[in-house]
Design a protein that fits this description.
The protein has 173 residues and is mainly beta. The chain has one domain (30-161): Electron Transport, Fmn-binding Protein, Chain A (Pnp Oxidase, Chain A, Roll). The protein has helices at residues 18-25, 73-78, 92-99; strands spanning 30-31, 33-38, 44-49, 53-56, 61-67, 81-86, 111-113, 119-121, 126-138, 141-153, 161-163, 166-168. The N and C termini lie far apart (42 Å). Keywords: Oxidoreductase. This is Flavin reductase. It comes from Aquabacterium olei. GO terms for molecular function: FMN binding; riboflavin reductase (NADPH) activity.
C-alpha cells in the first residue's frame, strides 16, 4: 500500500524557460471549453479554458484551472455553481471571443440557464454543471474541483480541439 507525502518537496528552478515549457505543453492536444457562472449579484462570467479533466466517476468530479491573475477569479470564487461547456467544432469564434479581455463575452452569445442557474452555451458538445467540491493552490493557478450535478451531451457533434497554439475543427489522420 502506498501513501502520499504530507508535503511536496521544495520547488527547484527548472533548466528551461516558461516559454519552452508552454511550447512543450502545447504539443498535448486538448478539447476546448468555456467555463461559465453567475456571481452572487447575477453577473455572467465566462472564459475559454483547455485545462479541463475528469477526476472521479464516484462521486462524479471534474477539474479545471484558472490563473490567479484572471479578472474572473473573484467571480468564480464567489459563484455557487459553474458550468463547463465543451465546445463543438463550429464554435471556434466563441472560443476566441471568450479568450479576449475587456469585452462583454456574452454579448450575442446564445445561452440558457442550466438547472443550477449556471449559463449553458447553446450548441456545446457536452455540458457539466458543477458545485464547488474543492479548490487547490497550485503555483500561479488555482485548481477548481467540481462535483457534477447535471451533465448532458450532443451525440454525433464534432469537438473543437487545441494543439500547438491553434484551434482545429478537423484533425488529419
Amino acid at each position: 500500500m502506498s501513501t502520499l507525502p504530507d508535503s511536496a518537496p521544495a520547488a527547484v528552478q527548472p533548466p528551461f524557460t516558461a516559454e519552452v515549457f508552454r511550447a512543450a505543453l502545447g504539443q498535448f492536444t486538448t478539447g476546448v471549453t468555456i467555463v461559465t457562472a453567475r456571481d452572487p449579484q447575477g453577473q455572467l462570467i465566462g472564459l475559454t479554458a483547455n485545462s479541463f479533466n475528469s477526476v472521479s466517476l464516484t462521486p462524479p468530479l471534474v477539474l479545471w484551472s484558472l490563473s490567479r491573475q484572471s479578472t474572473s477569479m473573484p467571480g468564480f470564487l464567489r459563484a455557487s455553481h459553474y458550468a463547463i461547456n465543451v465546445l463543438a467544432a463550429d464554435q471556434r469564434l466563441l472560443a476566441e471571443r471568450f479568450a479576449r479581455k475587456g469585452i462583454d463575452r456574452f454579448e450575442g452569445t446564445p445561452w440558457r440557464a442550466g438547472l443550477t442557474g449556471a449559463p449553458l452555451i447553446d450548441g456545446a458538445v457536452a455540458t457539466f454543471e458543477c458545485s464547488h467540491h474543492g479548490r487547490h493552490d497550485a503555483g500561479d493557478h488555482v485548481i477548481f474541483v467540481g462535483q457534477v450535478e447535471h451533465c448532458n451531451r450532443r451525440v454525433g457533434a464534432a469537438p473543437l480541439v487545441y494543439h500547438g497554439g491553434r484551434f482545429f475543427t478537423d484533425l488529419p489522420i
